[in-house]
Write a structure and sequence with these properties.
The complex is a heterodimer.
Chain A lengths: L8 E12 L2 E12 L3 E6 L5 H9 L6 E6 L2 E3 L4 H6 L2 E4 L11 H5 L9 H5 L6 H14 L17 H15 L3 E5 L7 H16 L4 E4 L3 H7 L2 E6 L2 E7 L5 H9 L4 H4 L4
Parallel strand pairs in A: 3-8, 3-9, 6-7, 7-8
Antiparallel strand pairs in A: 1-2, 1-4, 4-5, 9-10
Helix pairs in contact in A: 6-7
Chain B lengths: L3 H4 L3 H5 L22 H11 L3 H17 L6 H26 L7 H18 L4 H24 L5 H20 L11 H4 L4 E4 L2 E4 H19 L1 H11 L1 H6 L4 H27 L10 H11 L11 H20 L5 H25 L1
Antiparallel strand pairs in B: 1-2
Helix pairs in contact in B: 3-16, 4-15, 5-10, 5-13, 5-14, 5-15, 6-7, 6-8, 6-13, 7-8, 7-13, 10-11, 11-13, 14-15, 15-16
Classes of the chains: A alpha/beta, B mainly alpha.
């Protein structure tokens, strides 16, 4: 990805604060993602990664701070609103419905109805169209559903289910796709497939936020790394400017950004 | 509920611009797991076609009883079986909707009785025009459904407990309104009994109530399969957190399900009057559990998100076929109870097994 100094920010947050009782999960944290990049967010447990993602996805509302999408200040009151603004999130607790089929899952909550009286009076869903478009997007992501797009998600393996969740995000995420620990529950082979998916989404020009613990994976796909520690963003660096050991050292507090000569 | 769909006439095509060289290396192809043994093959089939199990049981039982039980295999007897189970089957539609959301409704029969005695009270005691009394009685059912829905969604009380409570409340109100007394057949307006009247086909008697029951099943089978509301009912019962995160307004779906269930039960109250001919505050008290039995034997999972409305019709018919067949074959009625118990446990055992391979 080109790294010109005036790259546009697709999404930006300034001074986000989120408290849960006495616990301050986010302590004036900042966030930004540029057009076309893959941004990895790393941090130790309790660093505030999940709270940050939930704020960006509209699942929780920050107590303070501002959020901007394409330069416009927004208040995301729900995941639905975030989605309407083109922010798609694949949550760690895979938000799929196992008993429903693949295309029903992809179109869940935004089903397409048939045209004419069948759709307007009899509320009939256009299953054929939803299946075709599901096949289309899965094909574009290299998820070839050679079998049956009408098969239920529970008959798929973990990696395939992840593929469905990611395909859903990719199908609708026009501005940003956020993936929260997409490979945490997967084996090596399946993780590799998800990494490939991330690259495929990004290849279509959609910026991706990747929350992960898997350092080699991050250094394989991410353009920049956002390092979260104790509720703050302590560093935002190009992956080419830092090595894995230093990233981990920053994450756990063994080194400070000043030690490495990086600004936040 | 789904106005957004129209603006997103073509959401994928609009937003997914094909990449220069879309990789079609098939890295994440969705393949079927290797070769399957015969048992796994049947299990897979039952997962994807949940009506197969109950349909097979119904067909086999019907054939066996037609051969072994005298007078079983006649059109008149089949019509009779359906008349016997139609009220349970109709309550089963309401019960299925609620069970699909991973809920349960222990108050269906109490709601039906309350709606029924309300119809009688309005028409017979208060002299309200019969047509209006019928509509008002059905609306009593709707109101009861709304009460159940509010308790579940606003007070966050599990459906089992909520409807256990309203079972007592609605039943007590039913006794209070009716004074514990029946309206005898002679005093019941003709319209209330209309669903018990019928027509002859090939020497057998069929009732308008049977026709209504079948129509209701077809309507709700259509709705569950072909509308966004239907899909959302499954989604809420299947994985409520996922449904919420995908933007489905979960409480609205639940509330609408309880209200629609109340509507179905209100209509069933009319059916019940036609079936028994009088308005009795104690008729069909055992129908609460019988409706759950029909749903479960019909292959719908008590854990929600899985099942078919037509399964409930099959479930009710299975109960009817076993009751009629065993009785015509000369068995004591205790063996009907016994068999239904075995069928329930068998159906749930199959469901558990299917859920396990579904994880």
């Amino acid at each position: 990805m080109s790294v010109s100094t005036q790259t546009n920010l697709v999404m930006e947050a300034r001074g986000l604060v989120k408290r849960y009782g006495h616990v301050t999960a986010l302590d004036e944290t900042d966030f930004e993602i540029r057009e076309g990049e893959v941004l990895a967010v790393i941090g130790d447990n309790g660093a505030g990664k999940s709270s940050l993602i939930q704020c960006l996805a509209g699942a929780v509302q920050p107590d303070e701070g501002e959020l901007m999408i394409g330069g416009e200040a927004v208040h995301l009151k729900s995941p639905v609103e975030a989605r309407r603004r083109g922010i798609e999130t694949v949550f760690q607790s895979l938000a799929v419905s196992p008993a429903l089929d693949i295309s029903s899952n992809i179109f869940l909550g935004r089903e397409i109805r048939k045209r004419g009286i069948a759709g307007s009076v009899f509320r009939m869903l256009d299953r054929k169209k939803m299946r075709e478009e599901s096949l289309d997007v899965m094909g574009q992501l290299g998820l070839q559903t050679l079998q049956n797009i009408g098969q239920s998600v529970e008959t798929l393996s973990g990696g395939q289910r992840q593929g469905v969740a990611v395909a859903r995000a990719a199908a609708f995420g026009s501005k940003v796709v956020i993936l929260d620990e997409p490979t945490a529950a997967l084996g090596v082979k399946e993780s590799g497939r998800v990494v490939k998916l991330i690259k495929d989404i990004n290849a279509r020009g959609i910026p991706v936020v990747l929350i992960s613990h898997n350092m080699p994976q991050i250094f394989e796909v991410a353009d920049r790394v956002h390092i979260q520690r104790l509720g703050k963003r302590i560093a935002l660096v190009e992956t080419s400017q830092i090595d894995m050991a230093d990233a981990v050292a920053l994450m756990v507090g063994a080194k400070t950004p000043a030690d490495l000569g990086i600004g936040s | 509920m789904n106005e957004r769909s129209s603006e997103l006439a073509d959401p994928v095509a609009a937003r997914v611009t094909p990449a220069a060289n879309a990789p079609t290396t098939g890295l994440v192809e969705i393949e079927q797991t290797g070769s399957l043994g015969p048992i796994q093959w049947v299990e897979r089939k039952m997962l994807s076609r949940p009506l197969i199990g109950p349909l097979a049981v119904l067909i086999v039982a019907t054939i066996v009883f037609s051969i072994t039980a005298p007078n079983f295999g006649t059109l008149q007897n089949f019509s009779l079986i359906m008349q016997q189970v139609q009220v349970i089957a109709m309550l089963g539609i309401a019960q299925t909707l609620i069970i699909l959301t991973a809920g349960i409704d222990l108050s269906v029969a109490a709601v039906m009785l309350l709606a029924q005695v309300a119809m009688g009270k309005f028409a017979v005691n208060l002299g309200i025009p019969v047509e209006l009394a019928l509509v008002l009685g059905i609306l009593v059912g709707v109101a009861c459904g709304a009460v159940n829905g509010l308790i579940v969604t606003k007070l966050n009380i599990p459906p089992f407990i909520a409807t256990l409570g309203t079972l007592s409340i609605f039943y007590a109100l039913n006794i209070f309104i009716s004074d514990g007394e029946s309206v005898p057949y002679a005093d019941v307006p003709a319209l209330f009994n209309w669903l018990g009247t019928g027509f002859q086909v090939a020497g057998a008697t069929f009732t308008f109530g049977q026709v209504l029951t079948l129509v209701m099943f077809l309507v709700f089978a259509y709705i569950l399969r072909n509308t966004a509301w239907g899909t959302h009912i499954y989604a809420v019962g299947d994985n409520i957190e996922a449904a919420r995160l995908t933007g489905i307004r979960v409480n609205r779906v639940l509330m609408s399900v309880y209200i629609v269930a109340g509507l179905i039960i209100g209509i069933t109250a009319w059916l019940l009057i036609g079936r028994i001919g009088s308005i009795s505050p104690t008729a069909g008290v055992g129908y609460n559990l019988a409706s759950i039995t029909a749903v479960v034997i019909g292959g719908t999972s008590l854990f929600g998100g899985r099942g078919r409305i037509m399964g409930t019709l099959l479930g009710a018919l299975i109960v009817g076929v076993f009751s009629s067949g065993l009785s015509l074959a000369g068995f004591d009625s205790l063996w009907q109870e016994f068999t239904i118990g075995v069928l329930i446990i068998g159906a749930v055992a199959v469901d558990q097994r299917l859920r396990k391979i579904g994880r």
